[in-house]
Every structure is written in structure tokens, then in C-alpha cells.
Amino acid sequence: MTPDELADRLDAAATRRGPAIRDRVDHVGTLAVARIRANASGRPGPNVITGAYRASWRSETRAIPYGAQCTIGTSAPQRRRLEFGFWDMTDSLGRHFFQPPYPHVGPAIPRIDADLRDGLRDAIGEAFT
Prior knowledge:
The protein is of the alpha+beta class. Helices cover 51% and strands 18% of the residues.
């Protein structure tokens, strides 16, 4: 391969890199939401009562220069209480509460991390083919 051929190949890879990374990050976001929802479907995570909390999880992917950014979350008011619990709380009426944590996001993080690493490695490989 000549230096000019290498330069052409690198230019082509640079133009394909951004879209390939965006596709993979979007896919990992979808997988992450599915993993969190699965973990929020009963013990050791929270039990499902209406399904509204589980359905409230979303993934939003945005393009950034040469890649993508994905935000995963929910706006449900019980999100922190379910994930982390609370140990000693008294409300304004004097009632005392204790709720153990029902982690469902934390246990999904290692698998999401592995999916993201695999996806980015595949995206870079795809850009150079």
C-alpha cells in the first residue's frame, strides 16, 4: 500500500467513523434501557405494581463531533428511593419510614460498560473496512 492509498483509506475511515459510533451508542442505549427494565421487574430490584415506573426509562442519543452521547434515565419521582432506599425518614405528619434499596441500575452498569466497549470496537473496525 502506498502512502497515498493509506491516506485515502484513512480519510474514508474518518468519514465513516462518526455515523458508525452513533449507531453503536444508540444500540447500547436501547440495550441499557432493556437491562434496567428487566432488573426493575422484581427482586432483587423493585416489584412491578403498575409497570409505569419500568416503562418510564428512556434512552436519548445525540450526535457530537466524531461520535455520540447517550443519556439514559427516568423522570419518575421514586427513582432514587427505589435504587438507594432510605434508612431513617420522618415525614411532615410524624410518620417514620424505612425502605431498603432495590438496586436495578447499579447491577446493569457492568454489562452496559461491556456492551459499549464491544460496540465501539466494532464501530472502529467497521470504519476501517
